[in-house]
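Structure first, sequence second, as always.
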């Protein structure tokens, strides 16, 4: 969880330090980041609560049945969170695809600028 939070912080710093370097709306990126941070926090809290309950039940005499029920509840909740992570992943894949298209267009423009530069150099040498 600490690695995920570290990567999310790095992404937030990157988004904030390059607000105009992308055709992708910065607000969309920040919203995606915030939703991802929120889901990560929810997931982390669910796991901590689950382990806390397991630890509390360790010392009770009738621990097997509650542990099984808690495990089922945890898996149901985890499945809901996983679906949210999948949605965020799909949105991130869409944004990455858009960024790749943007990069290809930038490369084409750069190649065109390089060719124009060579033409200007050759033209100025001829003149």
């Amino acid at each position: 969880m600490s690695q995920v939070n570290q990567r999310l912080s790095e992404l937030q710093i990157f988004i904030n330090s390059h607000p105009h370097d992308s055709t992708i709306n910065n607000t969309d990126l920040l919203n995606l980041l915030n939703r991802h941070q929120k889901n990560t926090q929810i997931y982390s809290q669910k796991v901590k609560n689950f382990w806390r309950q397991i630890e509390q039940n360790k010392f009770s005499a009738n621990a097997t049945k509650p542990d099984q029920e808690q495990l089922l509840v945890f898996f149901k909740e985890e499945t809901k969170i996983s679906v949210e992570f999948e949605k965020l992943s799909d949105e991130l894949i869409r944004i990455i695809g858009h960024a790749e298209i943007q990069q290809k267009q930038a490369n084409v423009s750069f190649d065109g600028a390089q060719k124009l530069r060579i033409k200007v150099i050759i033209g100025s040498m001829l003149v």
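Margin note: Helices lie at 2-17, 26-58, 64-126.
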